[in-house]
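Our preliminary data section would be incomplete without showing what the modeling component actually yields. Below, a chain of 88 amino acids is followed by its predicted structure, encoded as tokens that our downstream tools consume directly.
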Amino acid sequence: MSDEKIEIRVTETDAVMKVVVFSKRVDKIAVVLGEGVHSVKCTLDPTPNGAAYVGSAMGREIVYERSCDQVQADIEEAHHDYRATRRR
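Predicted structure:
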């Protein structure tokens, strides 16, 4: 099984980096920044208007620029039951 990776943006430097998704729900996304013993786990929460997800890791603000609706669609696509669509 391969790890899901998403791109986040560090707001201070506008740097874009890929991080591994630990868990993904509409109300919260947990990601892991870095690898090995120097990795940091961070939780991204939706903004009040639902346009993006924001969090803080080691004093830096990070942003995942996808809306709650887009994340819900991603989750449904990842957990789609293809057996239910078969013709009988």
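Helices lie at 68-78. Strands lie at 5-10, 15-25, 28-33, 40-46, 53-57, 60-64. Preliminary results of this kind motivate Aim 1 of the renewal.
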